[in-house]
Amino acid sequence: MIFFQGKRRDEEWGSVMGNTHLAPKVKATYEAVIALFMEGADLNNLTVAEITAKAGIGKGTAYEYFSNKEEMIAGALFYELKESCESLYEHLKKEKDLYGKMNAILLSMEKKLTQTSCFFQAVHVMTDNSAISSKLKEMVDSKTENDLLLVDVLRKVVEEEMGCEDELSEEDKAYLVMAVLSRLICYAMYQLDISSGIKPERKAMREMICKSSCLEIESFKTEKRAGWEFVI
Questions:
Q1: CA distance 229 to 232
Q2: 142 alpha carbon, distance to own chain's centre
Q3: Which end of the chain is least crowded, N or C, by CB within 10 Å?
Q4: 8 A C-beta contact, residue 62 and residue 48
Q5: 10-231 adopts what CATH topology?
């Protein structure tokens, strides 16, 4: 793999891409990065010494697995998001309709503020021009089909909801995913406000988001069908 070019071969410790079975020291490194982030650390200013101290491993050992701190930090963000999104998708499979799936996503965001905060940090990192940003973009661009991030989960949800609407273009699907994602981002910000002390009614907000998402997708589906019938 091109992402972690330390001295040990990829198969010796497991890859963050595709294979979620990580070597203990790699996993400890990732957990250390996330823990430091949740404690308020600036990821761009983290040092290898701080990461390895938190992970309980030596710097020399860390360099057997990673070439630099950027690989540690980007790998940690990618792995945390990938694991939480794949777990979320498995949970969504149990829901029978779009409303239930949207509600499950929102409830998950309420319960897992670590992952919510991690998502925002990843978005922030992706928009700057740091070495960490470059490495994270590299991982996202090269992920396998089995590596699910939030956009991938939402795309699957949209495709399942649209059913046999094979006529949908990639632009149509992208629009619907972004429409849902924008609501989730707003709700994530809302959750962080709640954790800071602002406490509006969460249940009512969840219901409004679920209903509006369902209505938008249903309306889009109806308009598309009408257009297809007109063409026919």
A1: 5
A2: 15
A3: C
A4: yes
A5: Tetracycline Repressor; domain 2 (1.10.357)
Q: What's the pTM?
A: 0.79
CA–CA distances in Å: residue 63 to residues 55, 130, 182, 223: 13, 21, 39, 56
Domain ranges of the chain: 10-231
